[in-house]
Design brief:
The chain has about 230 residues and is mostly helical. Among the domains are: about 80 residues, no CATH class; about 70 residues, Serine Threonine Protein Phosphatase 5, Tetratricopeptide repeat (Alpha Horseshoe). It has nine helices and no strands. Helix 2 runs parallel beside helix 4 and helix 3 packs antiparallel against helix 4. The radius of gyration is 30 Å and the shape is globular. The N and C termini lie far apart (about 110 Å). About 10% of the residues have low confidence.
Length: about 230
């Protein structure tokens, strides 16, 4: 019992000393607060963010995010690595949906090549063909390829066949692909077919400018001349 009493007495003596030391340290500005370190996004998270930007119509942002993780994405081999293949798809579609305008240089990345819009679109089509070859009969990949093919005059008939077949079977889940189909049908004089494709597109997205080209703003009326 005497031993227990001694231990209790020692403990009671230590507590005030500890509190005093803590108080003194705080008073002297010695207290240290560790701020939580924000974890760096993983490549998987970054490519998911790029996909979200792409579907939201932010083509340049999507390309920038891809290039930040895969600066040599143009050299990626379709199907060799699942994440690289996703990055390749996003970058190719960012080019397609920008009409060939998006490239490394205007996305803030270095490139020794200067890509013209037409060459850029040709590259995007070829890249999506390679992805399609690795994932045959995948409606999502086929819709991506059809959308890309619709951007080149020489491959529009191929695009019409591919996208039209998917739409007929109700296998097309991309509003961008329906918009591409509507544009081709309209150019060929199939007004009813174009309107049907636009309707399906509008059922999938409310984003402005996806299903129909944005209506240009009316020019401002000139101010009346001041009277003398």
């Amino acid at each position: 019992m005497k031993t227990i009493a001694k231990l209790v007495a020692v403990a009671l003596a230590i507590i005030p000393a500890t509190l005093a030391t803590t108080s003194d340290a705080s008073a002297c500005g010695m207290s240290v607060r560790l701020e939580p370190v924000k974890a760096k996004p993983t490549p998987v998270q970054e490519i998911a963010r790029a996909e979200k930007s792409l579907e939201g119509g932010n083509n340049k942002e999507a390309a920038q995010v891809v290039l930040a993780s895969f600066s040599n994405v143009r050299n990626a081999t379709a199907g060799a690595n699942p994440l690289e293949t996703r990055a390749l798809r996003v970058f190719a579609l960012a080019i397609v949906r920008s009409g060939g305008a998006v490239n490394e240089r205007n996305a803030g990345s270095w490139s020794q090549n200067e890509w013209t819009p037409s060459a850029n679109l040709e590259w995007a089509v070829q890249s999506l063909r390679e992805i399609d070859a690795k994932r045959p009969n995948d409606p999502t990949v086929q819709a991506d390829l059809g959308e890309a093919l619709s951007k080149l005059p020489r491959t529009q008939d191929e695009a019409l066949k591919l996208l039209g077949g998917l739409a007929q079977k109700d296998l097309m889940g991309s509003p961008f692909a329906y918009a591409a189909l509507a544009k081709i049908k309209g150019a060929k004089g199939d007004t009813a077919g174009a309107e049907a494709a636009i309707k399906r597109c509008e059922e999938m997205t409310k984003a402005p400018g996806v299903c129909k080209p944005a209506t240009p703003a009316a020019p401002a009326k000139p101010a009346p001349a001041a009277r003398a």
